[in-house]
Amino acid sequence: CRNLLDRDTFSKSDPICVLYTQAIGNKEWREFGRTEVIDNTLNPDFVRKFIMDYFFEERENLRFDFYDVDSKSPNLSKHDFLGQMFCTLGEIVGSQGSRLEKSIVGIPGKKCGTVIVTAEELGCCRDSVLMQFCANKLDKKDFFGKSDPFLVFHRSNEDGSFTICHKTEVVKNTLNPVWQAFKISVRALCNGDYDRTIKVEVYDWDRDGSHDFIGEFTTSYRELSRGQSQFNVYEVINPKKKGKKKKYVNSGTVTLLSFLIETEVSFLDYIKGGTQINFTVAIDFTASNGNPLQPTSLHYMNPYQLNAYGMALRAVGEIIQDYDSDKMFPALGFGARLPPDGRVSHEFALNGNPQNPYCHGIDGVMEAYYRSLKSVQLYGPTNFAPVINHVARYAASVKDGSQYFVLLIITDGVISDMAQTKESIVNASKHPMSIIIVGVGPAEFDAMEELDGDVVRISSRGRFAERDIVQFVPFRDYIDRSGNHVLSMARLAKDVLAEIPEQFLSYMRVRGIKPSPAPPPYTPPIHVLQTQI
User: Fold this and answer.
1) Residues with Cβ within 8 Å of residue 502, at least 6 apart in sequence
2) Is the pTM of this model over 0.90?
3) Chain centroid offset of residue 507 CA
4) I need a labelling partner for 90 at 20 to 30 A (CA). Which of 61, 201, 342, 395 fits?
5) Which GO BP terms apply (predicted)?
6) Is the pLDDT of residue 519 over 80?
């Protein structure tokens, strides 16, 4: 923190920070943890870190409370309140360099200073290793030919038992096999513990499955990481033979030929490096939604609560907006007749400005949506291709991984331009974008399931989509029986956004785009101590 309030008469405050998280349903704040107390300073750099789970698709509200500690009491009401700061976890990780600076508020009429929160992903074990082994002079187990050897790797568990984690292929008829290189995650190999035992068994393959045991050896990730060297030549020992034969030396040797560490990059690595997520919304203004003035309409403008369109929009938008620095969102409509001449449009700006369809924040989008409902005439047909192509045009111009586009289409149903939409999706799958379709109302959404390529990858005229970019959900699956809209919105957002990070990564991987380095971490200015002489 910087420039905290001073509550002590003779010295400076002794600050502590208390972090609270908020339950989704009942909105109750629960204490998550406290930092240490730092004595006599208004510019503390707290050391104790908070470790929490991060899910892109969930909104995690946070509250940081600051107190000046006056006694040993754990009861916070016994200490002076210095103010608080509210934010979401997404806001922190979505900020440039995952560093958020915000004013502390909560004491009327006083400047309470600022707090700087930084987040980093715990990269324990995002590594994989690529290893290759060969063996020499293995025992001959087959009566007619030489052995057909393969290796089996096991990681040891806390209780001393072993779990199989990798099998190599079988190399036929040789006592000096060279196995193909294989890739395995460090987590699978040793659970991220570099000194844990890894047991490797050597077998001779038999067609009937009764593979003959040749011998075994143990190693660890730390030993293997030395790479090809005299330390990584292992004697294969068969304990039974060793017990019986005095002159037994070994049953051959296994040598590590290469060991390469590869770090898997994560969604957050890109966000931290400055990749922006651009959010566009497209709303269905076809006549099948019903007259917006009637309570039965899906577009009914109820003054007391959001309609299904508003709920879907808020649920998804409020999470995505944390990853978009300018918070300006293009909002489009389709399937309506526009004033003044009544022409039908399948991609019109909700704010009435085709040159600049951007709305400020989710509130701006909601406002433009309500305004449009009052001015346009609901019509038809239900065409998706124009809005998909609209976003794809923007996405096609960004090839360096600095931006990714998410289009949310909210619709009441049956699509009229299926062939064109499939063609648009196949084309869009080459660009940095994802499409979320939320179906509202009681219609049959079978056609939408076909667009969501989870079961069968979508194709058009014999061309398949390069990757799965569509996620469809029917809104009715999320209506909470008890009428708790907060819960149904959280569930909806969770399901439609859960696939985005993987779709995002699949684009970056196919294109070979690495995350930009994050900006250098914040270093607090050094306070010069002035002495009075």
Assistant:
1) none
2) no
3) 14
4) 395
5) cellular response to calcium ion
6) no
